[in-house]
Amino acid sequence: IAEVPASPETSQREQAGREIAARVATEAARRRAFAIIAHPDAGKTTLTEKLLLRGGAIQLAGQVRAKGDRRRTRSDWMKIEQDRGISVATSVMTFERDGVVFNLLDTPGHEDFSEDTYRTLTAVDAAVMVIDAAKGIEAQTRKLFEVCRLRDIPIITFINKMDRESRDVFELLDEIEKTLALDVAPVAWPVGAGRGFVGTYDLLEPGLHLMAEGSKAVRLSGLDDPKLDELVKPELAQELRDSAELAGAYQDFDHERFLEGTMTPVYFGSALRDFGIGHLLEGLAKFAPPPRDRPADSRTVTAAEPELTGFVFKIQANMDPNHRDRVAFLRICSGRLQKGMRLRQTRTGKAVPVNAPLFFFAQDRQVAEEAWPGDVVGIANHGILRIGDTLTEREGLNFSGVPSFAPEILRRVMIDDAMAGKKLRTALEQLAEEGVVQLFRPLDGTPPVVGVVGALQLDVLAARLVAEYGVKSRYEGTPWGLMRWVAADDKAAVERFRRSIPHDIAEDHDGALVAFFSSDWRRNRAAEDFPELRFLEVREQH
Ligand code: G4P
């Protein structure tokens, strides 16, 4: 059979398609989407500020500072949260250096753990773990690390505050290995300690980064290089030779193991003194992966595919609370996003116009003409988009993995003014879409129940109900200590279960069935009585 020759238009289209595919691949390859994980006070804000300064994204670090200054009293935090300007601007920060585009996704910094943090971590390809050199691994570091491990997110470690009295380096490294079960591969080694800290020795490409030299590397042939004795005091040089030799006991850096999340390269520095930041950035550019393959329900999506795919991992109310505009944060997974595109929302099949996708810089937002895999853009909408939504150019696929966690705190929201019932329902629905709380409608018609992972979320809800909707509410306790999503193929069994506990059954925001239990014992009992049902602690949103 003779092949039908391609028409000129077809080959032109194919040519254009190939060009776009090549651009997508190039742009994807130079992007790094990452988050910083740290226990409060370890220096996340200071480091963020210094990274942005280096990337030329901001002239003055004022905006980020404002966040650092919210000294974690609850009321301060809420005031800042209500001032949406700052939190929107700092949700995603983009900066470019040596041809690499860094997208730094902010994880909420307050001590109370919220779902927002988990969701943000679904949208990054790597994380920088900041550790206070005097404190080592702290509670929040460990929690955040566990989330990264769950998703095999590769981690670069930055041991901060080296300019101050710090713990012994070996002790710190051993602690990381032991408490996190993560192999460490130091790539820098501190020279001197505490007040006597002068810089680091580069173990991968022999050389010294000295604080006094503005941390620029001075290359050496190795630890035996006599230049070392000219650059630092002889006793420091000797000490370095001895300890760096002992550092040889740690494993060599193995890029593959880093990518699979079982090994972390370790850098040392001082965010406050702007030391070690350049080295860390080099590491991020060199080792952190470009946008990774993402599993979807029907197949795995590769970043270099020419057609656009992405998912919404965060929703935030717009700057102006009088207009109920919301910005949905879309992480692009493949293809090219162009201004003016109409995307397909998989959940509903509806078209979502993207007329003014927003890019976020430290201080302002700009309309993006194009965006690429690894980028995050803001899409303004009136509540059409939800957390977990997949948007595509055409294909009806769904990314899995933006999770909802079974809340441990369950409260009824009550109002004294009966007239405000409708307003409260609308408000709760909108705030649930934004992910402030989870909302459940009991099937027995009793008042709505909200669920949260961290108690602070309840304060935020109450404050926003008043400030943005004029609804004064109060919480009433419930007899329940846990909830589970109910999944089953057997409809009759679900029906029997519903009838067995008519007052402990509700629907979540998406209409999925949930059951409330007063105790673990009750839940186990239900699982025994209804073996056809599954009681899920995590629900992946679609
Ligand atoms: P966080 O976002 O992780 O909570 O920490 P943040 O950057 O706000 O830093 C917490 C405190 O630690 C700040 O001091 C900050 O200046 C200090 N810090 C951060 N990095 C370093 C470092 O490398 N060396 C030293 N010595 N200190 C560092 P603060 O006194 O609590 O606040 P501020 O008055 O300086 O704003």
UniProtKB/TrEMBL annotation:
- One family from Pfam that matches here is GTP_EFTU
| The keyword Metal-binding appears for this protein | no
Where does the signal peptide begin and end?
Answer: none
Please list the residue ranges annotated as the Tr-type G domain.
29-292
Q: Which UniProt keywords apply?
A: Cytoplasm, GTP-binding, Nucleotide-binding, Protein biosynthesis
Q: Where does GTP bind?
A: 106-110, 160-163
List the InterPro entries hit by this protein, alphabetically: EF-G-like_DII (IPR053905), EFG_III/V (IPR035647), G_TR_CS (IPR031157), P-loop_NTPase (IPR027417), PrfC (IPR004548), RF3_C (IPR032090), RF3_dom_3_sf (IPR038467), RF3_GTP-bd (IPR041732)
State its location(s). Answer: Cytoplasm
PROSITE patterns to which the protein is assigned, alphabetical: G_TR_1, G_TR_2
Its function, per the record, reads:
Increases the formation of ribosomal termination complexes and stimulates activities of RF-1 and RF-2. It binds guanine nucleotides and has strong preference for UGA stop codons. It may interact directly with the ribosome. The stimulation of RF-1 and RF-2 is significantly reduced by GTP and GDP, but not by GMP.
Family label: Belongs to the TRAFAC class translation factor GTPase superfamily. Classic translation factor GTPase family. PrfC subfamily.
Task: Please identify the protein, giving its name as recorded.
Answer: Peptide chain release factor 3
Q: Which gene encodes it?
A: prfC
